[in-house]
Write a structure and sequence with these properties.
Elements (H helix, E strand, L loop, with lengths): L1 E2 L5 E2 L7 H17 L6 H8 L13 H25 L7 H22 L1 H7 L22 H14 L11 H18 L7 H18 L1
Antiparallel strand pairs: 1-2
Length: about 210
Amino acid sequence: MTATKDGKPKRETYRHGDLRNALIEAALELARQGGPEAIVLRAATREAGVTPNAAYRHFADRGALLHAVSQAAMAQIARTMEAEQAALPPAGDPAAAARARFRAVGTGYLRFAQEQPGLFRTAFHVPGDMAHAAAETAAGITGKTPFELLGEALDGLVDAGLLAEDRRPGAEFLAWSAVHGLAVLLIDGPLRGLLPSQAHEAGRHVIDMIERGI
């Protein structure tokens, strides 16, 4: 490190991997405040305290950085869903436990969308040309993605005898579509004016509907 004119330390280099992570963290904060549109390479480098050219050592363009941040935001969704499940009280009845874990997937997903709308929008931002879509999919603490956590919860319903095996295939798509649709309506659509208590009730009713439907 060297010192700037005002005497403050200036970081000139990063250990291997640190700069990439620092840029992602800086861009995550930008996304938290303004969604995917706020992610700009120059702004991220400024937040990380490096020159704009330094970013190109790790990200070919803005799209590459945006995709990395999208994956990091998706991992945060997974962690929120896992935390919702971990907070469940012990259930002696396997059927009740399976049902609670399934519902926690949905409530955790909706909670993240309402508490972190900028990151939620960023998690589902897909490049128009899909240029970076082959990158590794981000996962939460257990190594599972939100989609895998949902699938695991649905499998638990089958094991508990609450969901018929012949109705299991494709159930992820139906459940996710319904919950994601509500999330978007709550943060960007006509339901964004609901009180928190009303939004919670809307989420509960949608999950009730999914349970009955599958």
